[in-house]
Amino acid sequence: MVENIKGKRELILEAAIKIYAQKGFQQSKIEDIAQEANVGKGTVYEYFGSKKELFEEMIKQSIEHYSSSVESQVRCASNSEESLKLAVKGHIEFCLEYRDMAQVFFHDHSWVDSEFTKWLMEMWEKKMVSIKAILEEGIEKGEFVPMDTKLVATAFLGMMEGICSPMILESEEVIPAHMAEDIVALMLSGIGTKKARH
């Protein structure tokens, strides 16, 4: 019985991503989501009290799944540099997997309230703390030079967010592992300067 309930809930969330991506938040209807999930309208309301609650849960579940997946990968890294690469790779894979949902989030903020904004900030802070911890461990092991780890972690997250925008808004295709290599190399080595010849 539990498996059936869990299955219906997941079907509804998957259907919601498709419908919200096609129609946006305002134009989407619970009836459309129910039809896509092949369940009754009443079944949707058994799990979610409103269209807004369903949309928030859809985003929360996706982000929490991404966070736990990346954390488990990072724990298996052999060194701090690999940890950073896996963090970037996981972020890019998330952007590609949930591109449709992210497009809705980019284009329509009418449903966002202060409580959800607070939750988003808490998730961002959690990511920042995780990256900061990787940098601190790298410094302690002698893998990285001393730095302002909070500043670098914040800049690193900014880079991760920036590279995902074209993928979401313009459907740019990339290879996550390759881009992760480039991003981490840029962060660790910088862009370099070309000294003038005399």
Map the helices and strands.
Elements: H1 2-27, H2 30-37, H3 41-47, H4 51-74, H5 80-97, H6 99-107, H7 114-140, H8 149-169, H9 176-189
Helix pairs in contact: 1-2, 1-4, 1-6, 4-5, 5-7, 5-8, 5-9, 7-8
Structure description:
The protein is mainly α and 198 residues long. It has helices spanning 2-27, 30-37, 41-47, 51-74, 80-97, 99-107, 114-140, 149-169, 176-189.
Key features of this structure:
mainly alpha, 198 residues, Arc Repressor Mutant, subunit A, Tetracycline Repressor, domain 2, disordered N terminus, 78% helix
Sum up the overall morphology in one term. Answer: elongated
Number of domains: 2
Q: Spans of 5+ residues with little confidence (pLDDT < 50)? A: 1-5
CATH class of the largest domain: Mainly Alpha
What is the assigned CATH homologous superfamily of the largest domain?
Tetracycline Repressor, domain 2
| Class from secondary-structure proportions | mainly alpha
- Share of helical residues: over 70%
- What is the straight-line distance between the termini? 79 Å
**SSE order in H/E notation?**
HHHHHHHHH
**Rg, nearest Å:** 20 Å
Provide the residue-averaged pLDDT: 85
- Quaternary structure annotation: single chain
Question: Any idea what the CATH architecture of the largest domain is?
Answer: Orthogonal Bundle
**CATH-defined topology of the largest domain:** Tetracycline Repressor, domain 2
Total DSSP helices: 9
